[in-house]
Amino acid sequence: MKNENIYLGSHVGLSAPDFYLGSVKEALSYGSNTFMFYTGAPQNSFRKPLSELKIQEGRKLIKESGIDESKIVVHAPYIINAANSSRLDLYEMSINTIVSELRRTAGFGAKILVLHPGSHVGMGVENGILALAKALDTALSCDGTDVKIAIETMSGKGHEIGVNFEEIKSIIDHCKLKNRLGVCLDTCHVHDSGYDLRGDLDGVIERFDKVIGLDRLLVVHVNDTKNPVAAHKDRHENIGYGYLGFDVLYRVVHHPRLQGIPMILETPYINEKAPYKQEIAMLRSGEYKENWRD
User: Fold this and answer.
1) Which residues partner with 292 through β-bridges?
2) Which of 77, 118, 196, 224 could be disulfide-bonded to 83 (CB atoms 3.0-4.6 Å)?
3) pTM for the whole structure
4) Strand partners, 7
């Protein structure tokens, strides 16, 4: 029986000439009923005005296609690092960029903005958590939207914060505007940070619920990984070709405690082509095709 409560899609582009309309068409071509996108290049803060991005045309196609707009996800650019306040100019730039992305997310009709918690860059984890919490409260107090921020779980490379569930909980606990905060759980990242999804998926989900609460889980990034557990590296792999494997990721997508949550693939392109149509079809059906990317 088809599970109507599974929302499965991938990252899609936002490029000329069709911009958001093209994003929706790309998602539909993969068999998706959700998707994630950047509102501009992830490596910088340059952004085209919303009026140029064919948003109304895209939203019209979303409605015609029966996609639940509340399940669509925006990812904030990588240049944001609000976990380090030692450089006030960069810290304020990060806060301003968060505000801008919240407003742009609302302009697309989306309700969820995924944000990397950032790096403390030698300030220490606790100071990084306090800096980020202050930045989030500042941004959320003035953005004028109802968009929620989903703090992404990280793999633990470098000076990252948000590497375990307790750190994510601490970020939320230090914020005044907790009602606007949630979590994005990345399967590659939590595996690489040390959680044994392959050996104890139910236990990891239960741990998340006890520490943070599944009511705060807004997005799941469904990625295989090139690394063994606790490698702290963050290198995504195609579904079934990594250390997690197809069966584990299929169980994630179909897990009864994770239903209704947008599931987004960010796996590598193959010969410069997106693999998402094949991966989504296999994750929906449970029918894995060996050597499917050859």
Assistant:
1) none
2) 118
3) 0.96
4) 262
